[in-house]
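ARCHIVE CARD
CATEGORY: sequence design from structure
SOURCE FIELD: tokenized fold
FIELD CONTENT:
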């Protein structure tokens, strides 16, 4: 399909084209699409749907925003082709690169005609994840027209794809940027590869080495981890459509997590989103580490409501495994909240399809994961499921059963309690740890700013 503009046309081949399947109209419909079919869904639609129902989001018409994007792309196409002589008259000014010229046209018109800009108060601060307009496209397409490095590259890619440009998203530690990946383009003038940093004001072109030193310098451990991954490295690689959606789910989860506080339902939803992101981007250890952070919050919340300290729980577990008749807090009947009042009761007491028994214990119940620590240390291969409060994570935990998150429960417990890890060679990141690598550890995952 194409929309004519004089003798030019706006390509929509990558914009909501599909093989007989319906275009997702809601967030739930988006999640039901098979990962292989996500290549047929407009990246802007995926991103906007991930804002649906988030705290503080005023309901908006997604189709209206997408039509607005189409009109912006038409205008950019018109002005780019009208001024193409400027490139041919002085190509050295643009590094003799037609792709760079075209990308500079997008950036200039978005800024000067459509008032797109980086959110001023966040230029030198961490992004406020509670406000999803900093993270997703509705902040740029709405009346404020502002965003951050989480959303501005998505806008650039969405416009570029509407113009038929070979554009993709890429990740660096703590940063998102876009890439012109045209080495296989049928247009010989487009057979180039450029990393593009677009901040709403300027457009900069960098090589891969730049992102190994900015915004965070890579430690030797990160280099080694990337080398071991081979073609499936985490950073500086053009994302697949499934990985693009995983990135947007991570932003949605980040917003919900920062709103959750002691809201069990929001924490459940946050975990489910991270689990889905892991399933879509199986090589991404960052999403796994964020999911583990949610587990620590669940455990801390349970202990708070039971009025137990981590040390008391550890003593009870250790005594239980040594044969003492220690009781867990949910086994007391002295007016404390019951397990079912803290963790929603579920009829799903058996592991869902696709989970091994051990993965189910580690994923669904952080307290069960704590017990597994001592089971591992004592060489116990299996803990009776009857020892755990039923339905600890409720039905939300089974929402995406195809995406289990393998945990390291020993390290999980040690991070929570501050005990030295018996397995220091295996890094499991958590938000809030220092970004400085020590003893060969890679830096903690950082949010895009």
């Amino acid at each position: 399909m194409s929309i004519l503009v004089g003798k030019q046309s706006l390509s929509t081949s990558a914009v909501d084209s599909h093989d007989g399947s319906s275009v997702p109209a809601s967030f739930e419909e988006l999640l039901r699409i098979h990962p292989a079919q996500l290549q047929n869904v407009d990246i802007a639609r995926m991103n906007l749907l991930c804002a649906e129902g988030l705290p503080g989001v005023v309901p908006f018409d997604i189709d209206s925003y997408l039509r607005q994007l189409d009109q912006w792309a038409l205008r950019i196409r018109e002005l780019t082709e009208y001024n193409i002589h400027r490139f041919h008259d002085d190509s050295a000014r643009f590094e003799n690169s037609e792709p760079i010229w075209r990308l500079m046209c997008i950036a200039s018109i978005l800024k000067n005609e459509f008032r797109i800009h980086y959110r001023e108060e966040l230029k030198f601060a961490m992004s406020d994840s509670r406000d999803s307009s900093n993270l997703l496209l509705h902040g740029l397409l709405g009346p404020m027209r502002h965003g951050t490095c989480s959303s501005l590259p998505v806008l650039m890619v969405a416009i570029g794809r509407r113009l038929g440009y070979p554009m993709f998203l890429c990740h660096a530690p703590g940063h998102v940027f876009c890439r012109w990946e045209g080495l296989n383009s049928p247009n010989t003038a487009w057979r180039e590869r450029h990393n593009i940093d677009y901040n709403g004001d300027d457009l900069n072109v960098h090589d891969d080495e730049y992102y190994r030193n900015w915004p965070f310098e890579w430690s030797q451990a990160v280099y080694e981890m990337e080398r071991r991954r081979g073609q499936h490295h985490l950073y500086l690689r053009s994302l697949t459509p499934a990985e693009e959606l995983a990135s947007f789910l991570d932003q949605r989860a980040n917003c919900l997590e920062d709103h959750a506080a002691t809201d069990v339902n929001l924490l459940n939803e946050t975990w489910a989103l991270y689990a889905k992101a892991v399933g879509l981007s199986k090589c991404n250890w960052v999403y796994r580490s964020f999911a583990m952070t949610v587990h620590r919050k669940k455990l801390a919340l349970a202990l708070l409501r039971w009025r137990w300290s981590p040390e008391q729980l550890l003593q009870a577990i250790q005594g239980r495994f040594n044969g003492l008749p220690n009781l867990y807090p949910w086994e007391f009947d002295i007016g404390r909240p019951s397990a079912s009042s803290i963790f929603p009761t579920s009829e799903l007491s058996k592991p869902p399809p696709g989970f091994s028994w051990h993965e189910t214990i580690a994923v669904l119940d952080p307290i069960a994961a704590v017990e597994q620590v001592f089971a591992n240390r004592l060489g116990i291969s299996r803990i009776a499921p009857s020892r755990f409060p039923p339905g600890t994570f409720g039905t939300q935990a089974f929402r995406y059963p195809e995406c289990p998150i393998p945990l390291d429960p020993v390290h999980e417990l040690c991070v929570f309690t501050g005990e030295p890890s018996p397995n220091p060679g295996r890094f499991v990141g958590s938000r809030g740890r220092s970004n400085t690598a020590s003893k060969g550890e890679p830096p903690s995952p950082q949010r895009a700013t």
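CARD ANNOTATION: The chain has a mean pLDDT of 75. The first strand starts at residue 2 and ends at 5.
SHELF: design records, drawer C
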